[in-house]
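Milestone M4 deliverable, item 7.
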Amino acid sequence: MDERDRTRNDPSPSCAEDAAGPPGTLTLVATPIGNLGDLSPRAAAVLAAVDAVLAEDRRVTAKLAARHGIATRLVSLHDHNEETMTERVLARLAAGERVALVSDAGMPLIADPGYRLVRAAIAAGHRVTCVPGPSAATAALVLSGLPPAPFLFLGFTPPKASARRARFADLAGLERAGLAATLVLYEAPHRLAETMRDLADALGADRPAAVARELTKRFEEVVRAPLGELARRYAGADVLGEIVVVVGPAGGRAEPTEAEIDARLRVALGQGLSVRAAAERVAAETGASRRAAYARALALTGSAPG
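Output delivered:
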């Protein structure tokens, strides 16, 4: 390797301007998912060199900044103000400022704010780059002991039980149609028990899975077991910390569970379809027999055959 190659591949910036990029650059910076020591030297250099750091929660980012001696101004950008803040950030980029975007933990945009801003910055012709780093989804995936590729990242599950069950029923239907991927999703601690039960009902109690908690922290824990066993383990349990659930891929096409049929029927009936029309739709979507789907629709509505 000649000197030019060494210079080109040297990750350490020669000055603050090099770290922050050219004027008008938006840099997405990955931050630690738990252990503050996981901030990379390049990430620290960028955060110290930019004109402003857009933070999901300034209190969280302030602790990280203090740990690494970073004094850059912090500006709030979160789900509730991203739309209004986007125009202000675009104006700063147009004026030649260098701006970094961080979330509370992990890679920005991955189940975190920033997508609308990035889309707008790209459309406006600004340079958008990133400093990659920690991600709870990929950390849990590689620790799960389940196939790492292909995988499907689902983000947070719907908080309402009906919507969550419908989402899992959709996944089961996709798996019968040929989807074979490891599933990765985020869940709040207080909903973990319900989610594990719903996953077991929709995808099968014997499906291999893992629950990762407090990744990179002192009490890191990864529990690997079938979905049914995990549902029993967390039923009524007092769970704390950030949660990532990983579910192994489907082993092949399977008959739809009663829970999946019911979830899809509730959606169809809620859209105003008749019992018969709802049953026909669900039978076509899931591969269940029309007779079985019709029987479940009758049971759900309390109707008499007709």
